[in-house]
């Protein structure tokens, strides 16, 4: 049976391990989810090789990691949240005529109060990708702080069609109604799903009654009337309810999750139970994090709206991903490179739409372009530009195209070594030998306005804002490995801004940002949604108000100088020359 599992093919076309995961501000490699057709096989295999149930195994591994051990409520436990029958009386569809039976699944103690619970839930409503790696985001279609119980949200009928009234719950009053559209990462596999999210607060049962326990309830109702219509990324249930109960005198409370099943038998479906466990765990983790003072350090979508970049990414992915992966010529991982470069291309396409609109595009150059994929994708999308690298790659045979330049037709991918102007040429002829061809040197001067791309360009990263200032070109630099201006490995000083992390990466980003600022750039920063932890992008497209003509030589000296650069660049050129001879 284990052998049979090993032969199960990985489903193609939809699931790529390296697509982005944004949950909890970290990037992880996504588990391939169980495909329905294989599910019985997997379950049987697990049952044979493991003496414990799949759910128990899952819980054991998670609880070990997270210290999250909820109480699992028995199948016949009484309901924790009770929907009033009165709204259902006006219902017309068959299942709504029955009394809604919300089944509790898990409960866990918590030390965070109602306000934090509310913040966490609103954040989760706005960012469903935290819970599901299948989702890109939620588009909010409707948000009302004066919702009506027993009535469907009416004002936004033109954006969604869902006539089910907002339910009423015993002991609660409805405070807010949000209708969101869940946007899946892969629209070829699944459609978006609209969902009503209702936020309730407990109300005293009679006048003068002071409740000792404060309660807050959040209910999700997918706009789906039959189980078979539910998209893969959503649990197959009619509703999900999260309850927070809080004893203010004791500063203690608990959270629980209940489902409104399509059918009572669904209570025993392991996958649904596992999802409930995970959903409650995320609420607990986020609430606990807030209580401990966790502050979000990573802020996405600072420059461009999430939806625009993601929609463009989806379009590019559908157009190019499969073909690029299947024809991959390098020995590196195709998925990682293809998805990463498609994400960066999507960001640039949208950034350039803002910068240049319908006006002429000034052209781009990708310095240290590696395999040339980013150049190729951008060229295919109609953007004129080229790239160069000290070392040519096999893929260039496919990705190289021709570009009309004032000097005639040129390749879009060229084997060149950058020797930036502030580096002294003294000794060039003395140092160069038979392996070094001076024609392969590029001086880093580009036509004014050319957009400079420096993506994980290693030694060239700190040079990017400098050569951009010299040539008066806007730029994007996405730092990766840390090098100084002499091309040596370098640990940059920790950021002066103490709200920033002091990791080697964060230090490099802050250091390069410092160079850019000193060169007169009004630097903007974006954390790209790419499948890499090296995802900070520094963008220089505006000169700062007080930027005059920067003293480049002084800046280069201030940041450590260039001693040794000439030698290393000659070595790089010589080594690539001898590589290409072999
Ligand atoms: C980590 S790779 C990244 C390649 C590509 N941008 C990517 O993201 O896949 C860094 C590249 O910078 C190139 N490079 C470093 N210094 C260079 C220089 N002085 N001139 C040209 N290319 C250089 C290296 O050859 C290498 O291919």
TL;DR?
This protein is an alpha/beta fold and 582 residues long. 31% of the residues lie in helices and 20% in strands.
**Please, what is the average pLDDT?**
85
Overall radius of gyration: 28 Å
> How helical, in percent, are the residues?
25-40%
Q: Which class best fits the helix and strand makeup?
A: alpha/beta
Number of distinct helices: 16
Span between N and C termini? Answer: 48 Å
User: Biggest sheet, in brief?
Assistant: 8 strands, antiparallel
Low-confidence region ranges: 1-52, 90-97
General shape = elongated
Return the domain count.
3
* SS elements, strand count: 19
Strand content: 15-25%
Tell me which ligands are bound: S-adenosylmethionine
Strand order, biggest sheet?
1-2-8-7-6-5-4-3
Function: Adenosyl-L-methionine (AdoMet)-dependent tRNA (uracil-O(2)-)-methyltransferase.
Protein name: tRNA (uracil-O(2)-)-methyltransferase
InterPro entries: tRNA_uracil_MeTrfase
EC number: 2.1.1.211
Explain what you see:
With 582 residues, this protein is α/β, with parallel strands linked by helices. The protein folds into 3 domains: 1-51, no CATH class; 68-291, no CATH class; 363-581, Rossmann fold, CATH 3.40.50. Helix content is 31%, strand content 20%. The protein contains 16 helices and 19 strands. The chain has helices at 2-6, 39-49, 54-66, 86-89, 94-97, 114-126, 270-291, 306-326, 334-356, 373-380, 396-399, 428-431, 464-471, 504-518, 552-558, 565-581, and strands at residues 71-72, 102-110, 135-144, 172-184, 193-202, 213-222, 239-247, 252-260, 364-367, 385-389, 402-405, 408-411, 413-415, 417-418, 441-442, 451-455, 475-478, 524-527, 536-540. The protein has an 8-stranded antiparallel beta sheet with strand order 1-2-8-7-6-5-4-3. The protein has a 7-stranded mixed beta sheet with strand order 13-10-9-16-17-19-18, sandwiched between helices. The radius of gyration is 28 Å and the shape is elongated. The two termini are 48 Å apart. The model is unreliable at 1-52 and 90-97 (pLDDT under 50). Bound molecules: S-adenosylmethionine (SAM). S-adenosylmethionine binds at residues 368-371, 389-391, 417-418, 455-460, 480, 569. Keywords: Cytoplasm, Methyltransferase, S-adenosyl-L-methionine, Transferase, tRNA processing. Adenosyl-L-methionine (AdoMet)-dependent tRNA (uracil-O(2)-)-methyltransferase. It comes from Chaetomium fimeti. InterPro entries: tRNA_uracil_MeTrfase. Its main location: cytoplasm.
